[in-house]
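re: ur question from earlier - yeah i can do the single chain one, its not a big deal. heres the input i used so u can compare w yours
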Amino acid sequence: RYWGFDVNQALILAGVTIELPRLGISTDRGAYLFNQEFDFSTTAQGFRFAISEGLFSRLPLNRIARCVAAVMRRLAPGGRLYATWYENPDPRNFEPIARRGYTTFPDAEPYHYPFGMLANVCEVVGARAERVDTGPPHPRGESLMIITPER
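and the output i got, formated as tokens:
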């Protein structure tokens, strides 16, 4: 009942052919999609939840909007999208942000965004974003939000 998605087919195939067998997990326990348009039309309708781990840091805002809109169309009532992103705590600052071992940027990969900006993008495509306090920090320093459809 798992659906995997990535724009990079090689990443998913490596996970399926290398990582799953290492863990003793059958490769037929999931279905996998690869496309640039976030076209989920062939997936099951009614996902209870979706996870976007590290994706938003690779996407400009319009691609995030496309992703959120596409996922919202496939969620079951009460469904949720959990998404991580690199946060820019000062929306007026458009400088790179040095983090532990890497740098994020407002206009290049890896991207960082103010929460309010992402919340507004979600609102425009018919969703609601809520910041989540994760307690212990994320291993790569990303923040977490839950995105739900406005029904």
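The chain has three helices and nine strands. not sure if urs matches, ping me
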